[in-house]
UniProtKB/TrEMBL annotation:
UniProt keywords, alphabetically: Oxidoreductase
Active site positions, chain numbering: E236
Domain of life of the native organism: Bacteria
Domain Aldehyde dehydrogenase: 5-461
Protein family membership: Belongs to the aldehyde dehydrogenase family.
Name of this protein: Aldehyde dehydrogenase family protein
Length: 476
């Protein structure tokens, strides 16, 4: 894989801080070439000339190839972003499941007949938007690529993937599998590069839709650029997820899921349980045990089977996380666990799982997305206060609550301002469950048939069936 300029990105292994490979980096000429190739595919061997069942068969073949090469793809991902190999292997296998689902859904996106008149046949068609540019984050590249490729290709679009400059290698490997699966040339294009490549795609008149997962600041810039040509946009922009534990809950189960939800992927998850609200009668005991368990989490090399979590993905992200830890300390939060580099790791972008208590919900620590292994535990006194605290944020991606009271479960779930609310579990993610955010957490939904519809235009067709003559509207 080469670029027009011959430039390359050096990718760093975050567990060693050493360059482990290099990937060609795109420039303006490469963006133009990719858009031209995608448009040619839409006008040629893809687009409206390939049947939904044919698209589905290609997606199924790609899923099989991803399963075949799951170990190799996972090793690339772990080397690129620092996640433990067991985690990246699970993500790759789930990506294959996503592709399989959307392959099967490709021929099930139906329009509808509209009985608006006895003298006309009216119906709708779902047609592809056209050329879609999908910008991926660095925390789960292959997994989130499947969230965009699956519905986008099933709906008949041509796709341009722009991976993060921190984690481009797995997308290059995936592109080879797309070719092996038999997709026509130009249907899937990969453009590694920094933010300037994404900016070029957002401004390009040949791109019809932008699909982006990342920060709200970047989403705002994409929307501003896309506005010139009224591109369709869908965004998933992170969260500051409330995790509410009522005193009547199964506290043991809630504790285990809180740990997993706060610290999996080294906290580099848009749905991390970064604000844990606990009813006051059990607050101190819960916070203390959470901190004790966080200290048992093994931080280490992604390739050590004993490691529970790995490093942060980049030096920049590590610096951001440590800055927020300092903000928490300066703001009066009580540090219960973590807050520094693990003593046994001299190199790599590592930080201990960190637990704060007594945090002010209006503080930066509680309001801003950290994207690191840092959580804040805060007390509440009653149901109304729990809801108010949960909703007191600009984000609204995921929320969860724990209670044995069925009535409370439904009352609180209805009032939490999040695109996904879970009761007595947290963040169930499945290819059939729509996923997306309220407020600054994004626009639109991924997964399920809602995701496929977001990659289509709805066309209304009306056929007049009347045999009656039409009077001259402008008689002499």
């Amino acid at each position: 894989m080469t670029s027009a300029s011959g430039g390359a990105i050096a990718t760093i292994d975050p567990s060693t801080e050493e360059v482990w490979t290099a990937v060609a980096t795109a420039d303006a000429a490469d963006v133009d070439r990719a858009v031209a190739a995608a448009r040619a595919a839409m006008d040629g061997a893809w687009g409206r000339r390939t049947s939904p069942s044919q698209r589905g068969a290609l997606l199924a073949r790609l899923a099989d190839l991803v399963r075949r090469d799951a170990r190799a793809l996972a090793e690339i991902e772990s080397r690129d972003n620092g996640k433990p190999l067991k985690d990246t292997l699970g993500e790759v296998q789930r990506a294959a499941d996503w592709l399989t689902f959307f392959g099967g859904a490709a021929d099930k996106l139906n329009g509808e007949q509209i009985p608006y008149s006895v003298d006309a046949l009216a119906y709708t068609r779902h047609e592809p938007v056209g050329v879609v540019a999908a910008i991926l984050p660095w925390n789960s590249p292959i997994s989130l690529a499947s969230w965009k490729l699956g519905p986008g290709l099933a709906a008949g679009n041509a796709m341009i993937l722009k991976p993060s400059e921190y984690t481009p290698a797995s997308m290059v490997a995936l592109a080879r599998l797309v070719e092996e699966a038999g997709f026509p040339a130009g249907v899937v294009n990969v453009l590694p590069g920094d933010g300037s490549v994404g900016a070029l795609l957002a401004a390009h008149p040949g791109v019809d839709k932008m699909s982006f997962t990342g920060s709200q600041a970047t989403a705002t810039r994409i929307m501003q650029s896309a506005a010139a040509s009224l591109k369709r946009c869908s965004f998933e922009c992170g969260g500051k997820s409330p995790f509410i534990v009522f005193a009547d809950a199964d506290v043991g189960k809630a504790m285990a899921i809180a740990l997993q939800s706060a610290f999996r992927s080294t906290g580099q998850s848009c749905s991390a349980a970064s604000r844990i609200f606990v009813e006051r009668p059990i607050y101190e005991a819960f916070a203390r045990e959470l901190a004790e368990r966080a200290q048992r989490i093994r931080v280490g090399s992604p390739f050590d089977p004993a490691s529970h979590i790995g490093p942060q993905t980049s030096a920049q992200q590590l610096a951001k996380t440590t800055d927020y830890i300092a903000i928490g300390l300066e703001g009066g939060s009580r540090l219960l666990a973590g807050g520094k580099r693990p003593a046994h790791l001299e190199r790599g972008y590592y930080v201990e799982p960190t637990v704060f208590a007594d945090t002010d919900n209006r503080s930066r620590l509680a309001q801003e997305e950290i994207f690191g292994p840092v959580t804040a535990v805060m007390p509440f006194d009653d149901e109304e206060e729990a809801i108010a605290l949960a909703n007191d944020t600009n984000y609204g991606l995921v929320g969860g609550l724990w209670t044995a009271d069925v009535g409370r479960a439904h009352r609180v779930a209805a009032r939490i301002e999040s695109g996904l609310v879970s009761v007595n579990t947290f963040r169930p993610v499945h290819y059939m469950l729509p996923y997306g955010g309220y407020k600054m957490s994004g626009i639109g939904r991924e997964n399920g048939f809602d995701a496929m519809k977001a990659f289509t235009e709805v066309k209304t067709v009306v056929v007049d069936l009347s045999t009656a003559p039409v009077a001259d509207p402008f008689p002499l």
